[in-house]
Amino acid sequence: MKVNWKRNVIILAFSEFLIRGMMTLIRPFISLYLPELGVSGAEELAFWTGVLTSVNFVAQALVSPVWGILADRYGRKYMVLRCVIFMGIFNLFLAAVGNVYQFLVLRFLMGAISGFNAAAIAMVATTTPDEHMGYAVGMIQTGFMAGTIFGPAVGGIIADFVGYRGSFIVAGIVILILTPLLIFGVQEEFSLPTNADKKTKNNIGIGILKGNSTVIRFLIIIIIAQFSIQSADAFIPLFVQDIYRGKDLNLVVSLIYGATAVASVIMAPMLGKLGDVYGGTTILVICLLGLGVTTLPQALLHDVILLGGLRLVAGVFVGGIVPSINAVIAKTTNQQNRGSVLGLSASATAIGNFAGPMLGGILAAKAGIAAVFMVAGTIVIVTATYLFFIRNQEKYKAYPVPPGKVQR
């Protein structure tokens, strides 16, 4: 069977859009939902916002490498279906929680069993020709960020009509409806590994990284980039609450979240294609530097319109970070082990996603929310500077360049 990689990319990007949308229906409003679970006080709200935003990422960091190994051994499509089914079920469970501790446990379990973005990227990385890898990963990222726009945009409206608990029920049902589309629409040509194949997979999990310094360094960069992005994102609702005096808080928060995502949706496939031509490292340097420069000034703002404008510009650069990194990682790994390596990439992403809100919560409680933006901007600027000076080293050009293209 010849796999139609373009159809896979379209279906997975659409599924990513809906799943991410449903998963972000409530996320921007976690800090506003907590009083219903008995949490009160500014410091307590900041602490629990950080913990609950981070806990599912802790589970992903621990479990993602295992799912990556299983994907290489039994098929990536099974991992995609596993994510969809369990994410739908756990969202339904979240509607029934009675206190913040039950919410915490379910968020952890959801993180351990989910991870659709990583599963979708692993799927396209093993069914897409290398010369289109940046574009394919960029399309998945477009679906991801489009869902990030859609979720908060409709989340405020749905929450006003059915409440926060009702939003979880809506999310669970919509995610489960995707199951038939993925079963019958996504193709994978996969055969169980032979004994000879297994000998080439002696190094699994962390062992795959042996001798691959490019992947190791880019995994570290993933952690840093996601730390910066998530530490700032987690506290947008509370920051807006501090500087906004109007009556439409939910709507304003949704629009500001959406500003970043709109730009990312537009730019992700474009930057992915540019990475296929000029190299993912070059695009990554530009994106990290741009993200840092647009994040730092947010700490000084007292106007929601200016904040939304800066978040829009930051989104241009956010859109190129994940496609660039994952395309480089995929191209520097043989196809048999791409699921395992991208599982490690998902783990690194989860570590950054966890550390950002968690440490950001501690920093916000001690030094104020503005300090979170200052730290987030500074660390990505430093990372971009480092990567700029080592970008011409031969090991960062290890992945194949498409015929007729010039890598710079």
Oligomer: single chain
The total beta strand count reads 0
Strand percentage lies at: under 5%
Supply the CATH class.
Mainly Alpha
Instruction: Please state the CA-atom Rg, rounded to the nearest Å.
Output: 20 Å
Counting helices, strands and paired strands, the structural category is mainly alpha
Termini, distance in Å? Answer: 37 Å
In the CATH scheme, what's the topology name? Growth Hormone, Chain: A
Shape field: globular
Low-confidence stretches: 198-202, 394-408
Second rung of CATH, namely the architecture:
Up-down Bundle
The SSE string, one letter per element, is HHHHHHHHHHHHHHHH
Task: Tell me what you see in this structure.
This protein is mainly alpha-helical and 408 residues long. Helices cover 77% and strands 0% of the residues. The protein is built from 16 helices and no strands. The radius of gyration is 20 Å and the shape is globular. It starts with a helix and ends in an 18-residue tail after the last helix.
